[in-house]
Structures are given as C-alpha cells and as structure tokens.
Amino acid sequence: MTQSRSSESGPAWTFLTNHAHVLLVLAQRPDRVLREVALEVGITERAVQRIVAELEEDGYIHRHREGRKNAYEIDLQKPLRHPIESHCSIGKLIDLIRSQG
Hints:
By secondary structure, this protein is of the alpha+beta class.
C-alpha cells in the first residue's frame, strides 16, 4: 500500500489546481499584487502571471487599474471548465471554499 508523500513545503498533490488557487486568492483580495499571490499559492510569480493571462483570455477575470496597481474582477457566472463540473459556476466554487466555517 502506497502512502501519500508530503514534504515540509506542503502536500504532494491537492484537489484544486493552481488556476483555482490563484482565482480564490484574487477573490479574497482583488487588489493583491501577483508576487503576493505567488507566495500564498506556493508557485512562482511567472506561473501566476501565466495563469492570470489565461484566466483573463478566457473571460474568467477582468483586469483594471486602480492607481498604480492592477485589480481583478471575477466573472462569478462563468461555469467551471471540465464537463463533470460545468454545471457549477466560479461563484459557487468561491462560496463553497469561503464557507469553510
């Protein structure tokens, strides 16, 4: 029987993707700089930049300037992408994670 590997930096795998993690962090604080998002998610700033570009390209987030910083607005009505979960919206996923008690 194989055990799940875990390191000091965190679990070997998670149920949500880095795209979901970035989205959840931006939902919590839309004006967060991408360097902070990268630190919280545990990936590189460059990876966060790529993920944000993909989310923006597909209409899941919209970027706008607030002073000298970017801020992100999430389209809460957009469905999740995989056919198994496409009946659920981004907003429902965010609500589910936020309602952790």
